[in-house]
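Sharing a chain and its predicted structure for anyone who wants a worked example. Both blocks are below, sequence first, tokens second.
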Amino acid sequence: MIPAMVVVKRGGRHPAQDPGELIFSYKEGRRLQISSAIHAIRHPFKVPVAPGVALDRFVYSFIIACDTITLVDTGVAGCEETIFDYIRTIGRDPAEISLILLTHSHPDHIGAAKAIRDATGCTVMAHSAERRWIEDTDLQNRERPVPGFSTLVGGPVPLDHELVDGDTIDPDGSGHYDLEVIHTPGHSPGSISLFLKGEGALFSGDAVPVAGDLPVYDDARKSVRSLQRLKRTRNIRILLSAWDEPRSGKAVYDRMDQAASYLEMIHKAVIQASETGTSDIIEFTKRTAALLGLPPQAANPLLARTFAATMKVRDLNDLSAEEKSM
């Protein structure tokens, strides 16, 4: 079910609105107003990796406050209270949330979606390839185990509408906040980015890896392809990633270049670690992590999954060169 004010247009190009003024005003350190309509909330959380040992992580979710309120991702379980509190500080009511757009199905993006939907009755949209893990979180935990999964995810949530590449979402029916859906697989099969043309703002989910941070993706070549596509997208003036601070101006495309270089670095590290001949996946993961300068506690099943995905294309000398030849 789609609320009466939300319009999804399939295919075609739509004229961009004049971008508004950037504000970048911090509130309480973790909350940031990006523009008159866009707000970012930084959610810190912990991922247990061993008894008494946890990785400190954070993830961003975003608010688009127009005639209605749209959320891009929701953080982990419990983040709904932070989101609701912030909405009240800008003089709005959490009951105005009409739409959640999920960039993909992983725990730090869908964790609070159930609680928010239960509280507001809002619509939930995502790519069709993410439906199974959004609607069946136990299945996700079995197929892609994450340390502390049950503490990160508040439960499954029904998907009301499946998005496809090229869709345009008009969240309040005004035509001023059109979001273009860009399918950016690699991190996950149905990962999407959302381009708010009127603000020049790209919500990239986890499609733009952060150099030096924990790399997480299922398909190395598709990750490169998605980065190349985002780099070809013109007039991005704000990059809003889930695992990175908001970037603006020249730093937007610089960040994408750094991400592409990081994927190549991972590729080379995987090839080097594989030459030791070990068949132990955890030992292989630790060796590759060390080559990348990642801490030993980062060698968890998610990182092993990433390096295993890279091993599938180890015969390629250059991921970017492969992309250019396609």
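Comments welcome. Residues 7-261 form a domain with the Metallo-beta-lactamase; Chain A fold (CATH 3.60.15.10).
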